[in-house]
Fold each of these.
Amino acid sequence: MSHKLLSYWHRWGIFLILLLPIMVLFVVNPVFRQPGNLFNLWQQASIIGVLAVGQTLVLILGGFDLSVGTVAALAGVICYLVFAGGDGGSVVLLGVLAALAACAIVGAINGILITKFNITPLIATLGMLSLVRGFVLIVTEGQLVYAEGPGYTFAEFLQGSLFGMPVAGLLFALLAVAVALLLRRSIFGQYVFAIGGNEKAALLAGLPVVKVKILSYALCSVLAGVGGLLLSSRTASALPNAGVNYELQAITAAVIGGAALGGGKGSIFGTVLGVLLLTAIGNGLNLYNVSPFWQTGVTGLILLLAVGFSTWGNRDARSIVR
Amino acid sequence: MLTMRGISKSFSGVQVLDRVDFEVTPCEVHALLGANGAGKSTLIKVLGGLYPDAEGQTLLDERRIDLSTPKTALLSGIGIVHQEFDLVPEMTVAENIYLGFENLHLADGRPLWQRISRRKLIEAAGALLNEYKLGIEPDAVVRKLPAGAQQLTQIARVIALGSRVMIFDEPTARLGLRDRERLFDVFATLRASGKLIVFVTHYLDEVMAVADRASVMRDGRMMVTTQTSATTVGELSRTMVGSDVHGPAKRKQPTLGATALSVKGLSGPTFEDVSFDIAGGEIVGIVGHLGSGRHEVTRSIIGQIPARGYISAHGDAGRTRIGFVPENRRAEGIFAELPVGTNIAIGFLRERSILSLLPLRAMETTGADVVGRLQIKTAGTEQKIGQLSGGNQQKAVFGREMVSNPSLYVIEAPTVGVDVKAAVELHNEIFKLAERGSAILLATDDLDEVMLMADRILVMLRGRIVKELDTRRTTRQDLVSAMGAG
């Protein structure tokens, strides 16, 4: 196989392998290809999708964020506590803003721990994962928080449809396009790629490395918060132990999409494809009543496959560079 | 005798080695020369067992040897000191030298090295380091050693292997003068014991000083093999680049402007009470062996290493910007995955942008302008910079700093790992910067370079500036003795 073909295989092979069972499903299973199911699929994909978009940002930067699952739970809980505490339409705006602001603070703390205290992203965000989960469990006393009135209407709206398309799915699409533009067309985006590619050179070239990192982690957390709002709107209530293992799925989707764990590489387009494929496979397993226990295993397997595709045979990729 | 015959290798249809013949005899230091991209590194990787699909034959002492994997190459008697560091930073020098030797078995099944106690390991390493006078403690942790000592550790590892053929791929690029002398003494010892030594370098003066024969490659072909006593530096460099090298324009008498950089009583971790001024339009060299504090002084001027004292850089209109070209291009200079254009523009994005949007047009025109002005060989500003040769990468790093038109440049080792032609072009570019009124601090280990470029030379020794020399009234010999090596 020529080198060019081989490098295409490394980049896109995982898509082909994941696309194959989905295409088979599409052909053999009439339920799978029903418009109603495709609508559901898009809606389901949007939660992990928003998380994965944020994750892509910090992966390109050369880090990663394990706390996104619990941050999603935090957003839901704060939002619904505000909903439960008041009535009138303004409570919706207040709840959403309070939730996203809390997420931004958590993300900024992640960034500060990583840049100012030199804690590796693994430990910093792992600690934050546990810290935030503890906080959420304490304030809710482990109980579910639910909304009535305007909060309930808001949840219904998020789960509803607009022009025949799911609102949650449209929001996901909008945020994905916005972050893609941010990465490709703004200075901030160029700095993210530069810092992830060579942090030392970025420092010496005078780029605002610390600022960009803190902002990126904050943005990643805010997106996780949006995911949390979508998640809680499904039942118009927030569970303190929601979002467990979502970080795994978000990272998997981004890695399928070509984001490199060492930083400097990745694209929102690839991540969105990764999310859709991952969700479609889960959806297919659901249709055949495969237990959720198996689904977790399958996600892990897909992650290993995806990483394997980008690194296996890397020696060939290196040897091209003289 | 090592004989390579008809070695060919291509990558994605590009012929990088074309029927290369290469021969090294025992008791010989054989220099392998060529501009960047000539095929030297590929030829060495073939010997190292990294390209089993290369065509041609390799014989050692009339027998074919197995170059299908790095391990078989090693066991066939090929030892290579690679250009990149491949040491474990957290382990000691001794552990690094013997790392993995327990798993190596000679053709007859005997282990190359018996597992021994930690104490004996350090003794063995100590004896080896002493015998070759490398000046490194065997129980030192590699991470804490300066770059030169790390390079020597890598060299010690290959000596310990006892390979019949020893290949040194640009070993001097990271070495200070004293360590360089140590390495050449090692060459002499190895040569006397009958080893075959291949020495890859860009420095032709080193070739004339230590090599018995030299082979010159160009565009994947072997051009010539000659006795060094029967050739000259000029002849070798002509063969390397294929045409006459135009020497750099002569340095004109500088027109000095106002003081651009003033350093007073600067003290830091490895240096003390350093003071000097540089005027606009002046090129000042700063030299010193590894550990003299030269590197740290340079890095504290650009603000990377904290120091006490007084540094003031005066720019035009109250704004100062220091253009900095780091010595370690790959690690500190370029963003390998980003396009050439972005690498050039990354520094000025904030100034030219509206609403934080990328100034795409300014990036394109500036990138194209710099590529044209510095004659950077690239498929276009969209090509990833990591795919360019070292010389062209270096030009792009220069270009990035030039865009903001700083009043002061701090330039470290501008031509390390750069081919002869690109080096001349870079030197001319530095002259032009000075003529336009910029002050230049040039930190380099290349004494010919500093003699050629600088108006004044600051010599550092043990953390202090011990001498300031006027280049017009100084010989290379004066410089060497001032540095404490002579």
Note: Chain A has 14 helices and four strands.
Amino acid sequence: MSVDISVNGEVTTAYLNGEIDHHTAASIRNAIDNAAELNMPALLVLDFTRVSFMDSSGIGLVMGRYRNLSRRGGKLHITGTSPQIYKVMKLSGIEKLATIDECKK
Amino acid sequence: MEIINKFSMNILSRSANEGFARATVAAFAAQLDPTLEEINDIKTAVSEAVTNCIVHAYRESIGKIYISGEITDTNIIKIKIRDNGCGIENVEKAMEPLYTTVGGERAGLGFAVMQSFMDSIRVRSHVGKGTTILLSKKIAPRYTVNG
């Protein structure tokens, strides 16, 4: 599992790679939080294009990032979800907190 | 209904084994020729059940997680995930979405995912003795036409 960060003005994008579960979530969380603390983005984009699996640990991860961002007035956007990841996201109702692009085919 | 194949294994409750457990069960389920969605449903449910054993049942300790599976001649996969951990005091409460007893960033959605992604789930738990989760899912038969 790895995270690549890209910063473009007020938008920070975290490109997630690999599988997200309870085992991998902590290192992903640290990488995103370090980047968010450094760049204070108005918009944080989580790009799941290269994530091959996610269970509800990923929901905890997204909800935690939402909480941190919303304290500073930042927004969260989710993109690149596979049908499996989108299904887990929809079940959690997370679209009430973040904008989510329709899943890729 | 006849059992045509089965497996059993046990793993330590180390988080590194979450991926191993779901991949192994998915490989066993593959003989039913599931769709990608069906195999992903099984992987996700197993991941939730195994994570519950690690995060809740054994908490700060390391114990064994027993995983077994059966396939029937009616295209049903049944998966049993058992631990000898602390047990669940109130199973009904534990199965409520967003309910969690641990802090951090647990979403409290483990049972909701298992219920939603599988056809059935049964939970048996005794405080101080452990928990058994039974999951089952029917894989729709797919027929191919030759010639």
Note: Chain A has one domain: 2-100.
